[in-house]
Amino acid sequence: MSIVKTEIDVRYQETDQMGVVYHANYLVWFEIGRTKFIEYLGFNYADMEKSNVVSPIVDAQISFKKPIRYGEKATVETWLKHYDGLRSVYGYRILNGENDVAITGTTKHVIVKKESFRPLSLKRAFPDWHNAYKREIEGV
């Protein structure tokens, strides 16, 4: 299983009145990490979209352990937690500037035709991508 690390510089605009990162921004950081994970495997989400296929989130879960503040560097760790040919579940851990686990979470995705949102099989639509995900899950 590959874990891809992505550094985030916490910007002032990402914080709330309490001086900590506003909770909705963690979903944005998850997306940044997920995009880097996909690129690490040799694929590009924009190429998927050129085929009129998109990958919406169908479920998201976030747990808040410690605050992250403006001026810190956060590290998003991303991996493929589950894949069954139709659904992909990505795992995330966000470390604060002191390398403590601040946030954990998952997002579940499917791929669909952009116009109809009709579900597709990754195996049929993008066989190389499917094979890479199978290897990640099997630890090969």
Automatic annotation (TrEMBL):
Keywords in alphabetical order: Hydrolase
NCBIfam families referenced in this protein's UniProt entry, alphabetically: YbgC/FadM family acyl-CoA thioesterase (TIGR00051)
Record-linked InterPro entries: 4-hydroxybenzoyl-CoA_TE (IPR050563), HotDog_dom_sf (IPR029069), YbgC/YbaW (IPR006684)
GO molecular-function term, one example from the UniProt record: fatty acyl-CoA hydrolase activity
SUPFAM superfamilies found in the cross-reference section: Thioesterase/thiol ester dehydrase-isomerase (SSF54637)
Keyword Hydrolase found: yes
Name by which UniProt lists this protein: Uncharacterized protein
Protein family per UniProt: Belongs to the 4-hydroxybenzoyl-CoA thioesterase family.
